[in-house]
Design the sequence.
């Protein structure tokens, strides 16, 4: 649905212009020379807006410079679908509008950074952006050089620091991912090496069984026993470390009594497979051959260990696969930039990517409302928000505490809450946490751009809102995202 924008009605008012002497009563022009005020008087005009009328709109091209002569005005900024009032004033002489018109043209469009509305009948002295920019550059060249250097320097610095922060975050995530991948990869390599040895031993044992001129019916019985034992091991209950140790002792004693060679080496394999003494006794009775028992125990032991090693390989490679899928989900390299998403998928993949940084001292609690519908979003950008919020929470707790990720619905928005049990944010800092370059971390530990970037992604990029609630032991960042696409203007 297309919404027609509100019309701006600036009307000329008597006498249409201000004299040089009248301009001198405005603090902005009082220090200028008579000639300068005369020039401004000749290039400006007076305009009025009735109470309730819109004077300028956030995002429109910045084409005029306004000085308030009378009335009350308010400045507002869009936060999601809401208009948040930032300034309300009736002070004569305050200015707004194209305040950066003096900056040299760098090809970037200049737009109003806020909306201004007249709360009562208001009158303004108005200069065009071109005239205001010209007088500033011509009359105050040194000041303009300083202001341009400050503005462009801050812009460049913010861009460089932001890029550096993104690279550092990428490096940290890569290091964490490599650490997480190393464990299952190393486990798979170890299991593969051991598996090669066990398969070689099985081939040798099979040769010895054949050389022993085992009757075909006995060899068939042995192979059937092997399959039955493996099947029983797959269904064996999980035992504690103490129970496994006791079972190893029982199996070792049983094997020693029957002269099984290296029974101490085979018993742990049978115990790990959940095979007890009753099962060994059944094997002994079905073979009915003391001479064949020793070789049969080792043969079945090799088969059991082979199965265990293959399970280890399967678990390790499965872990690698899940980590790779989490990395793909996090980066969304194979998906469209904007799509309808389930926010829980991004939260889960971010937790996987940050698992190494979260550590064992932090308990992660997920309170998800799985009935939430999908929302329109840029998932890779939102994952950057989750990364910043979770990383800040972990650092605030110094590696020990509870990280709570909660999702729920609030009217026509989805709310994602990232909470920690750290010391909290002091009251004097709560209003500044989203300011660029503001940080409470030690020098070198933060750039002060993480929350600023998160704010711009959520508010400007998704039409949502992000806020902070904090007290000692309970700090929560609340991200509110709309359930539907914003209406086009």
Sequence:
């Amino acid at each position: 649905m297309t919404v027609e924008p509100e019309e701006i009605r600036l009307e000329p008012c008597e006498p249409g212009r201000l004299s040089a002497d009248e301009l001198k009563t405005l603090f902005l022009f009082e220090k200028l020379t008579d000639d300068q005020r005369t020039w401004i008087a000749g290039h400006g005009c007076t305009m009025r807006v009735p109470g309730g009328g819109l004077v300028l709109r956030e995002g429109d091209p910045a084409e005029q410079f306004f000085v308030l002569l009378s009335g009350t005005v308010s400045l507002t900024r869009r936060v999601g679908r809401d208009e948040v009032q930032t300034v309300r004033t009736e002070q004569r002489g305050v200015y707004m509008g194209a305040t950066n018109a003096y900056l040299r043209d760098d090809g970037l469009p200049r737009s109003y950074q806020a909306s201004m509305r007249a709360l009562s009948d208001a009158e303004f002295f108005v200069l065009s952006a071109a005239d205001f920019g010209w007088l500033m550059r011509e009359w105050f060249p040194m000041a303009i050089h300083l202001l341009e250097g400050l503005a462009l320097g801050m812009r460049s610095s913010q861009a460089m620091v932001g890029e550096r922060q993104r690279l550092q975050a990428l490096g940290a995530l890569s290091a964490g991912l490599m650490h997480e991948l190393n464990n299952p990869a190393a486990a798979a390599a170890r299991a593969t090496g051991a598996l090669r040895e066990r398969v070689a031993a099985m081939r040798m044992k099979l040769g010895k069984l054949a050389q022993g001129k085992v009757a075909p019916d006995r060899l068939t019985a042995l192979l059937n026993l092997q399959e039955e034992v493996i099947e029983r091991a797959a269904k064996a209950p999980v035992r504690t470390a103490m129970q496994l140790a006791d079972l190893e002792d029982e199996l070792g004693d049983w094997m020693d009594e029957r002269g099984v060679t290296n029974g101490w080496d085979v018993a742990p394999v049978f115990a790990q497979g959940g095979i007890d003494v009753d099962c060994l006794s059944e094997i002994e009775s079905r073979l009915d051959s003391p001479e064949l028992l020793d070789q049969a125990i080792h043969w079945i032991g090799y088969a059991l260990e082979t199965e265990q090693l293959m399970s280890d390989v399967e678990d390790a490679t499965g872990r690698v696969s899940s980590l790779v899928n989490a990395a793909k989900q996090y980066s969304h390299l194979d998906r469209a930039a904007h799509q309808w998403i389930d926010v829980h998928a991004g939260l889960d993949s971010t937790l996987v990517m940050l698992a190494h940084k979260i550590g064992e001292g932090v308990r992660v609690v997920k309170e998800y409302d799985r009935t939430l519908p999908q929302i329109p979003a840029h998932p890779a950008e939102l994952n950057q928000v989750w990364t910043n919020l979770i990383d800040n929470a972990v650092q605030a707790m110094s590696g020990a505490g509870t990280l709570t990720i909660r999702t729920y619905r609030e009217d026509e928005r989805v709310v994602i809450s990232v909470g920690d049990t750290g010391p909290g944010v002091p009251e004097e800092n709560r209003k500044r946490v989203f300011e660029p370059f503001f940080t409470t971390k030690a020098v070198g530990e933060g750039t002060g751009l993480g929350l600023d970037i998160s704010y711009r992604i959520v508010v400007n990029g998704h039409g949502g809102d992000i806020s902070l609630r904090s007290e000692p032991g309970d700090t929560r960042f609340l991200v509110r995202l709309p359930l539907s696409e914003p209406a086009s203007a």
